[in-house]
């Protein structure tokens, strides 16, 4: 996901791109964030049927865990997100990707809650992924890392939560691929999730979404510098392919309406078309910029792994074809949210989840938020999104008997 | 909730609350912004869920911490399992549904008991307006013109009694309310209530 969807190219990062790429590489085994290592005696079982060990998970925390350990919220990040939900990303130097949602006085209020956000399995900012060092060979895993699933990501997070001494999470929240993890958490660990907030997500990855991911992966793999996934060995990086993948994906995060209102057919730094293939239009320039900045912070193989994890997600299929079976007898309180112009995860997908939750007799709220900003709306300053999150967490906090964001004392921000 | 708070509560809501046993699992269909749900939670400590067609109302209710989903009674009730709730409540919503009979059947399926309140089209003032003016009645309770009313399926108290019969429901309790939303505190045959009741509240269950 993008951190921002601004019309203008983002400000020059504090760290130069070439340095960024090397900073990113350093983060893979030794992240700047907190890190939990699991030794050979504590392997991670994978859906594929194998295990990995040793393995590690990089995470950040915000706020303080209460004495009863009942106020922990796990934030699950989206496709290319990271553990820096509410603090500066050490690679890009940019503020946390969900600072609008998570922080002191924010809806996910770090004055009240203990917030955990971990880099996903298969990611590239410190949790074991294809760019990590394979302990058996002392070389980068590359494609030797087994393909991971949303279920695997959640299982790794469950191990982290357990290692932190937390029995039950007060809430698990997240959007897009993060929302898939929320649904997986609620389904796989119903007794460990008091409240769940899946946003702009669905119970499975649709054919159309798999198609877009495949285009992205093919772009990466078509880049000669990809070297069949062994680019690290040859000191190369498939930046062209990864950049095109990001450009294609970025279109799916925005709406026709937002593209039109931001860029229309406006020309980039010129008064007339050039009858050539330069970036005549602002939208072209914007996408190229998005692609170029992305490759400095993200690993190409990691992109293959995380997109694949989303493609393989199908919660109903894992429960005999009936989605309601994924949530039978659940005591978790759900708040499902979607956005009107999100065509990547349209409201109908959220409604499938809501219908299944109702059929399972679950406690569920559902809000469709009016927004022109497409899928990316879940990351942005959308008043209704923030209001709903605050309201839902406040209600759930009262039910849990812990202080809520709505309980005064905190400064108005 | 104090007596003063209750004084401002809508008449049918007050009676609805009396019909519901404390701690029950309740689904309020057509819950709007969740006023009744909030009242039931405060006064009856229910495990309450809501359901409404208006996204705006739903969003407000959720932001206030209530469990509410957007959906419409005609199409989305089928997702709920049998006996999912102790009470399925339909407060001033029946007359706005496309297929009231089917909705009532769904309610009797998903709720062990069903509470329905509705405006009584058989009230004498409505009859007189139609009789003397020859126009569709417009009153405090039914403030809409015929062409812009959301109330597409009006019924009278006697019509509702008949519908209950038809869907194999047993009337456990029924109350008629006057124009000020006060309970009409005497027992009378249905035809009397049908004439003087501004609205009615019914408690039903499936006949086995």
Automatic annotation (TrEMBL), chain A:
Gene (UniProt): metX
Q: Where in the cell is it found?
A: Cytoplasm
InterPro entries with a match to the protein in the record: AB_hydrolase_1 (IPR000073), AB_hydrolase_fold (IPR029058), HAT_MetX-like (IPR008220)
- Which residues act catalytically here? 176 (nucleophile), 342, 375
- What protein family does this chain belong to? Belongs to the AB hydrolase superfamily. MetX family.
Keyword list (alphabetical) reads: Acyltransferase, Amino-acid biosynthesis, Cytoplasm, Methionine biosynthesis, Transferase
Per the UniProt record, the lineage of the source organism begins with: Bacteria, Pseudomonadati, Pseudomonadota, Alphaproteobacteria, Hyphomicrobiales
Q: In which pathway does it act?
A: Amino-acid biosynthesis; L-methionine biosynthesis via de novo pathway; O-acetyl-L-homoserine from L-homoserine: step 1/1
Protein name from the UniProt record = Homoserine O-acetyltransferase
Automatic annotation (TrEMBL), chain B:
Q: Which Pfam families match?
A: MetW
InterPro entries in UniProt: Methionine_synth_MetW, SAM-dependent_MTases_sf
What name appears for this protein in its UniProt entry? Methionine biosynthesis protein MetW
């Amino acid at each position: 996901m993008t951190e921002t969807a601004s019309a203008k190219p983002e400000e020059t990062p504090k760290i130069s791109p070439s340095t960024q790429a090397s900073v990113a590489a350093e983060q893979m085994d030794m992240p700047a964030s907190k890190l939990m290592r699991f030794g050979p005696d504590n392997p991670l079982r994978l859906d594929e049927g194998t295990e990995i060990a040793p393995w590690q998970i990089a995470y950040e925390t915000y706020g303080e865990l209460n004495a009863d350990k009942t106020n922990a919220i796990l934030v699950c990040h989206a496709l290319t997100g990271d553990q820096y939900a509410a603090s500066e990303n050490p690679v890009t130097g940019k503020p946390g990707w969900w600072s609008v949602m998570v922080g002191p006085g924010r809806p996910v209020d770090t004055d009240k809650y203990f917030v955990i956000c971990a880099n996903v399995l298969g990611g590239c900012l410190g949790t074991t992924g294809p760019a990590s060092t394979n302990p058996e060979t002392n070389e980068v895993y590359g494609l030797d890392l087994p393909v991971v699933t949303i279920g695997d990501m959640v299982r790794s997070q469950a191990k982290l939560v357990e290692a932190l001494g937390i029995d039950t999470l007060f809430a698990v929240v997240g959007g897009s691929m993060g929302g898939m993890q929320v649904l997986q958490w609620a389904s796989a660990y119903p007794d460990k999730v008091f409240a769940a907030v899946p946003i702009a997500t669905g119970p499975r990855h649709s054919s159309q979404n798999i198609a877009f991911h495949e285009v992205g992966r093919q772009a990466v793999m078509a880049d000669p510098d990809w070297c069949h996934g062994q680019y690290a060995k040859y000191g190369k990086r498939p930046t062209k392919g990864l950049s095109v993948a990001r450009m294609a994906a970025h279109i799916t995060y925005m709406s026709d309406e937002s593209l039109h209102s931001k860029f229309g057919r406006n020309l980039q730094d010129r008064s007339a078309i050039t009858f050539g293939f330069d970036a005549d239009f602002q939208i072209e320039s914007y996408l190229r910029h998005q692609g170029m900045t992305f490759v400095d912070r993200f690993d190409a193989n990691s992109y293959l792994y995380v997109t694949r994890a989303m493609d393989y997600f199908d919660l109903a299929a894992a429960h005999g074809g009936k989605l309601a079976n994924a949530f039978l007898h659940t005591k978790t309180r759900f708040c499902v949210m979607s956005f009107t112009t999100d065509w990547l995860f349209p409201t109908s997908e959220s409604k499938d989840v809501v219908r299944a939750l109702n059929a399972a007799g679950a406690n569920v709220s559902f809000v469709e938020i009016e927004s022109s900003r497409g899928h990316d709306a879940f990351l942005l300053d959308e008043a209704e999104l923030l209001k709903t999150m605050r309201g839902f967490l406040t209600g759930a906090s009262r039910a849990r008997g812990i202080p809520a964001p709505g309980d005064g004392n905190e400064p108005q921000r | 909730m104090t007596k003063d708070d209750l004084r401002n509560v809508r008449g049918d809501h007050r009676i609805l609350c009396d019909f519901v046993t404390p701690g029950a699992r309740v689904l309020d269909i057509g819950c709007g912004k969740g006023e009744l749900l909030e009242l039931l939670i405060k006064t009856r400590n229910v495990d309450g869920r809501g359901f409404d067609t208006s996204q705006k109302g739903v969003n407000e209710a959720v932001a206030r911490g209530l469990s509410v989903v957007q959906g419409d009674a005609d199409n989305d009730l089928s997702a709920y399992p049998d006996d999912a709730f102790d009470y399925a409540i339909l407060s001033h919503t029946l007359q706005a549904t496309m297929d009231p009979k089917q909705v009532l059947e769904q309610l009797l399926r998903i709720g062990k008991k069903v509470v329905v309140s509705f405006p009584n089209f058989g009230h004498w003032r409505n009859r007189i307006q139609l009789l003397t003016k020859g126009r569709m009645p417009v009153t405090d309770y039914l403030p809409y013109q015929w062409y812009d009313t959301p109330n597409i399926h009006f019924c009278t108290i006697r019509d509702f009694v008949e519908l209950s019969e038809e869907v194999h429901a047993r009337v456990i309790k029924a109350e008629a309310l006057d124009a000020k939303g006060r309970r009409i505190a005497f027992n009378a045959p249905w035809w009397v209530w049908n004439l003087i009741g501004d609205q009615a509240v019914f408690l039903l269950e499936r006949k086995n």
